[in-house]
Design a protein that fits this description.
262 residues, Collagenase (Catalytic Domain), 10 strands, globular
Amino acid sequence: MKNTSILKFSFLGWILISLASCLAFNQKVISQTKRVDLSIEDIVDRDMLDNSSSLRRTYNKTAGFNGKTYTKPIKYYIHDKNQKVNLNFEPFKIYYAYEISDDVERFIVDTFDNIDTIIDLDFKRVYSSEKANITIYKTKKFHDEYDAYSEFNWIDDDIIYSQIVWHEYKFKPSYKVKKLKDYPTLPYDFATHLLHEISHSLGLLHSGCGQYWCELNFDPEDSRINSRDTIMSYNLVPSQNTLLTNLDIEALKVIWGAEKDK
């Protein structure tokens, strides 16, 4: 049985799991700006916290979970060609993807490498989309509301796929574009888009689950919350670095457990 879970990042113009973890699930984590309290539960896909859910069972099988640790890496593919593609998403289709810059490529690879050191799940880059569990494509503008978008597809208890698409847009003349210190040609905004969607692929969610009927965990457009509180917020606070927040890291550990290999 094929399932789909849709995750999107709407920026209104320029804006944009081992359950055995010893972390207390209902622990309140104070947002860095202290304007609102956010808990781990506020940014986690509820289905990823339920070992009986189809999504979690399938992710566990894909990652070779043996009851204690994950024995198979999650494979990711970065598309880096100007090439025709055939990407099907529930609300739209994409027929062409584009080459990316060296800084974008390094940022994506470094993101997976850094997360790999934090959680028990492992990652491996592959160079064929057919071999990947997570695929990332740069495209043209594909929707009036979304600048980045991701969608889960899985077959019950078999294998899981997550497709991520994003596009580069022109900034307003009045907007001061801040770029990352370690990736000098990469604007903070685009890096945040990518990190937001990759985090979706690992179980972070601003809606309660990947279904239209789920209540929001929190409103990603809530002006009291921004990207310094959680990468799941749509409200950007540009800086020279784009990182997961402490809350994001603790939530990923609740889902996947802390790294056991180091």
